[in-house]
Design brief:
single chain; ten-stranded antiparallel β-sheet
Length: 303
């Protein structure tokens, strides 16, 4: 595979594939749209599909819980939808919310010797098969007291030098990176049952690179970068809306300039792990570790 910088275009989300289980999930969401359980029902269409096909019959006899006309045993949704019925005690027991990972096999001979080439292969697959935000990645950092914090950012480019995201340089994440540049990135793609875990050093990219990306952003996003003092406490959303209109008026007849407090970071990887979900939790894991001479070792890890 050809090496080189991969810029990530803005793409429209893929339309979800229709299925009997998807229709039933939509019906359940419409019929019982309780905010306490909405996210659990909405985030796991594959769990519903697995339950319809194999999951339920392997664990619960049909004579005990008859299956509906479309194949889904009623207790699955009854269990999920009933989680928030207790108004005195909030919380959910989601022990039964699971699916069996049935991803591809991953062997050493399947891997490229270069983890960036391997990542590009997996990332291209995610772009073609993951419905929403395949470039979403969890960024974790620690503060001066070694307390960790995580947030989701969007990967905007990567190459042999590292993985690039953009943010406010006065945000909490920026303050933590300034004190301790050791960070981790975690990509999770549910559909193919894959994760990529990266540990490395974050550093600011040149202003010229930040400017080039900033000029490619939608105008509303450019104005938004000026508006928010990210991570600071604010009294109301109306302040943001008023500030947005103020900045919009300021740049009414000209290009929006790059804020001095906004730009990109590049994470230079020291370790990259590729995780492929498999049946019975016997996942395939391979860890690339960078050596002093710039080469990479590859080791299989226990799941």
């Amino acid at each position: 595979m050809r090496k080189g910088r991969l810029e990530l275009p803005r793409v429209a989300p893929l339309a979800p594939k229709a299925s009997a289980s998807t229709n039933f999930a939509t019906f359940a969401l419409d019929a019982m749209s309780d905010p306490h359980v909405l996210s659990s029902r909405a985030l796991y269409p594959q769990a519903i599909s697995d339950w319809n096909s194999v999951g339920a019959t392997n664990t619960v006899p049909d004579t005990l819980f008859p299956r509906s006309e479309i194949g889904c045993q009623v207790p699955f949704f009854a269990y999920i939808c009933g989680m928030a019925e207790d108004t005195e005690h909030h919380g959910m027991n989601v022990a039964s919310l699971r699916r069996s990972a049935t991803g591809f096999a991953l062997d050493r001979e399947d891997l490229d010797d270069d983890p960036i080439v391997q990542f590009e292969d997996w990332f291209r697959y995610a772009c073609e098969n993951v419905a929403l935000d395949p470039n979403a990645v969890a960024l974790s950092s620690v503060d001066s007291s070694m307390r960790p914090s995580s947030r989701t950012v969007l990967l905007k480019s990567f190459d042999e030098k590292g993985f690039v995201f953009y943010t406010n340089y006065e945000s909490r994440k920026a303050a933590e990176i300034a004190e301790n540049p050791n960070v981790s990135l975690l990509f999770f793609w549910a559909e193919p049952a894959r994760q990529v875990k990266i540990r490395g050093i974050a550093e600011k990219i040149p202003t010229s690179e930040s400017l080039a990306y900033f000029l490619s952003r939608p105008r509303g996003s450019q104005i938004g970068a000026w508006v928010s003092a990210q991570s600071s406490v604010i009294s109301s959303r109306s302040l943001l809306e008023a500030k947005f209109q103020e900045i919009k008026q300021k740049f009414r007849d000209k290009d929006v300039s790059l804020p001095s407090f906004w730009g990109g970071y590049r994470v230079d990887p020291e370790e990259i792990e590729f995780w492929q979900g498999r049946r019975n939790r016997l996942h395939d894991r391979f860890l690339y570790t960078k050596q002093a001479d710039g080469t990479w070792t590859i080791e299989r890890l226990a799941p």
